[in-house]
């Protein structure tokens, strides 16, 4: 069960990272976003933040679209951010996540 105030990871296999490396996906951007979301979750403890590996969430989701951040409000979709460019690229940090806060 996901905990509030923490980044929870959902995974149906333990070989996800190996599969992504084989697919030549930018693991570094996914790892960076996970680290930033961990800090974001600590800053906003009333939020539930989940990480779901793309290929385990949406069958056939294109690797080039990872990482993707989907934002939901109370029972409704609010928006999405594809890649880190909208969040500051490789310099993404919690203070620069105003795009997420605006959703």
Q: What is the element layout, followed by pairings?
A:
Layout: E1 7-9, H1 16-22, H2 27-43, E2 49-51, H3 54-57, E3 68-73, E4 76-82, H4 98-102
Summarize the structure.
The chain has 103 residues and is of the alpha+beta class.
Report what the structure shows.
The protein starts with 6 loop residues before the first strand and ends with a helix. The strands form 2 sheets. Strands 1-2 form a two-stranded parallel ribbon. It has a single domain (7-102), classed as Glutaredoxin, CATH 3.40.30. Helix content is 32%, strand content 18%. Strand 3 and strand 4 (76-82) form a beta hairpin. It is α+β, with helices and mostly antiparallel strands and 103 residues long. The chain is globular. The longest helix has 17 residues, at 27-43.
Which terms summarize this structure?
two-stranded antiparallel ribbon, 4 strands, globular, Glutaredoxin, 103 residues, two-stranded parallel sheet, alpha+beta
